[in-house]
Amino acid sequence: MTIESRAIAVTLEKTNKVLSDSTRGGDSAWAVLFSQSRKIGSTFRQWTKLTRSILTFTFMLVAFMGTACSNDEYGPYHVIGYNYTDRTVYLFSIDGFGAGSSEANDPGGGGGIACCLSIPKNAKTMHIKVTLGWTEEQYEKDLPHDTFETDIPVPKLPNKHRGYIEVHFLPNQKIQAQWVDFPTTPHIPNAKN
Fold first, then answer.
1. Predicted structure pTM score
2. What InterPro entries has UniProt attached to this entry (predicted)?
3. Of 49, 50, 173, 193, which residue is the least packed, with the fewest Cβ within 10 Å?
4. What are the b/e assignments for 37-60, b being 16+ CB within 10 Å?
5. For 117-132, what is each residue's pLDDT tens digit?
């Protein structure tokens, strides 16, 4: 039971007691009822003011924190993966951001677009974690996916607030990233139409 509910219940109990005790003097019972309803209204107004103050403070705090955080990062950027290898990139992440997958031998590069990556202003590198698709042998023997991790340089970011980060998966577990205004169309060797 909330404080408001408890105050209303106590007030109603007192009012019922006074009304039942003073059926002889009808005027005093109504006067008590009126004074009790004024107390309830006053308590409600106090709670309304307090709630409004708390909500205003919370909104201002969230707005300030959002502004402060946005000043520490670049972005948001869309991420797309281009796969130049013969193994599907089952999953990849950049500094913990789930950036999607990228099919092998796909003429368009094999990746979808994921949103939205933010890059800390002071970052010099990005940590990439890659999970490769199963080989036929891994699938048949129910073996785990092959994974590898590496750090790559943060690409030059001419636009600090939007654009695309293209992640290029090259042979021998090499990865490169670049910022572009709009996704490019890569030339994927051995692509199957």
1. 0.62
2. DUF3304
3. 193
4. eeebeeeeeeeeeeeeeeeeeeee
5. 999 999 999 999 999 9
